[in-house]
């Protein structure tokens, strides 16, 4: 993909799953990466494996101080920031009628407010020279999720936040796009795949009849920041094996 060589990226949630696979793709293309994640042990491991290319910063994306520290570290260590991948996510599940307000707020805080804080400070770091940002939302930005109202509502917010950011940041040469993954095999969905009946029911709804591997989300994510996507801005790319059209 064009334009990646020598760039610098921040990846939140980069210690696992889709985020880590994006990190691997970036490293293959000679991009330096600052990873912000809660998982200190894993960050250390990745840093040890790639001492010249990776810096890990323990980050809670709900903390503006943490996000500022992540961005400052990236720029101090690697000299600039070109790309932001906002991947960190979690879900506290529950039926709307029963869910505690604390659980609802905790989910929205990470999924939506975490992306707001990340985009805000990434944009500040990029505004002098331009860049590109990818926010990982979900097919559940478009499709409701039984037992996952907080998650789906917050992910819908991420899609609209992306469009607003694209509108505001184009003047600085910063493009902002969203990826909406369907069902991906990662630690986040490991419990789901333990239930064979549930898995089968989902496979019948997905035209591809299989979940995706994280690499199938990482590749289009990296494409969206590359110069090959230079005219793509404010868009939502659904990566779901055709699930949404059924
Ligand atoms: P994962 O659990 O493998 O990785 C998520 C990472 O985010 C972890 O390393 C975790 O430590 C980190 N994280 C969680 N809360 C954080 C916080 N407050 N601050 C910083 N880091 C935090 O999950 P994944 O499946 O790779 O998910 C990545 C993204 O993709 C998430 O936003 C998720 O909602 C989204 N997504 C996943 C799927 C799927 O099927 N796996 C589908 C649609 C969307």
Automatic annotation (TrEMBL):
**Which Pfam family, just one, is annotated for this protein?**
adh_short_C2
Q: What Gene3D superfamilies does the entry give?
A: NAD(P)-binding Rossmann-like Domain
Which N-terminal residues, if any, form the signal peptide? none
Which Enzyme Commission numbers does its entry carry? 1.1.1.304
Alphabetically ordered keywords of this record:
Oxidoreductase
Q: What class of enzyme is it?
A: oxidoreductase
InterPro entries cross-referenced by the UniProt entry:
NAD(P)-bd_dom_sf (IPR036291), Sc_DH/Rdtase_CS (IPR020904), SDR (IPR050259), SDR_fam (IPR002347)
What GO biological process terms does the UniProt entry carry, in alphabetical order? bile acid metabolic process
What's the superkingdom here?
Answer: Bacteria
The reaction(s) this protein catalyses: (S)-acetoin + NAD(+) = diacetyl + NADH + H(+)
Q: Does the keyword S-adenosyl-L-methionine apply?
A: no
Q: Which PROSITE patterns match?
A: ADH_SHORT
**UniProt xrefs under CDD domains:** SDR_c
Q: Does the keyword Oxidoreductase apply?
A: yes
The family assignment reads: Belongs to the short-chain dehydrogenases/reductases (SDR) family.
Task: Please give the function described in this protein's UniProt entry.
Answer: Catalyzes the irreversible reduction of 2,3-butanediol to (S)-acetoin in the presence of NADH.
Q: What is this protein called?
A: 3-oxoacyl-[acyl-carrier-protein] reductase FabG
Organism of derivation: Jeotgalicoccus meleagridis
The record's gene field reads fabG3_1
């Amino acid at each position: 993909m064009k334009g990646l060589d020598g760039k610098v990226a921040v990846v939140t949630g980069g210690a696992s799953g889709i985020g880590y696979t994006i990190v691997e793709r970036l490293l293959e293309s000679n991009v330096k990466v600052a990873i912000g994640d809660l998982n200190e042990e894993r960050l250390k491991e990745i840093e040890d494996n790639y001492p010249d290319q990776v810096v890990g910063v323990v980050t809670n994306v709900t903390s503006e101080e943490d996000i500022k520290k992540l961005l400052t570290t990236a720029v101090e260590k690697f000299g600039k920031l070109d790309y932001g991948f906002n991947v960190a996510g979690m879900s506290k599940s529950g039926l709307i009628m029963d869910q505690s307000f604390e659980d609802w707020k905790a989910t929205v805080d990470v999924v939506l407010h975490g992306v707001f804080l990340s985009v805000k400070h990434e944009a500040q770091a990029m505004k002098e020279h331009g860049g590109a940002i990818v926010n990982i939302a979900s097919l559940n930005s478009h499709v409701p999720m039984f037992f996952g109202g907080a998650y789906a509502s917050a992910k819908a917010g991420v899609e609209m936040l992306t469009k607003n950011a694209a509108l505001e940041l184009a003047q600085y040469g910063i493009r902002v796009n969203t990826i909406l993954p369907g069902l991906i095999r990662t630690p986040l969905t490991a419990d789901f795949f333990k239930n064979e009946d549930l898995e089968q029911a989902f496979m019948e709804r997905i035209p591809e009849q299989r979940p995706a591997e994280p690499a199938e989300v990482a590749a289009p994510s990296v494409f969206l920041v590359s110069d090959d996507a230079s005219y793509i801005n404010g868009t939502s790319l659904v990566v779901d094996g055709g699930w949404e059209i059924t």
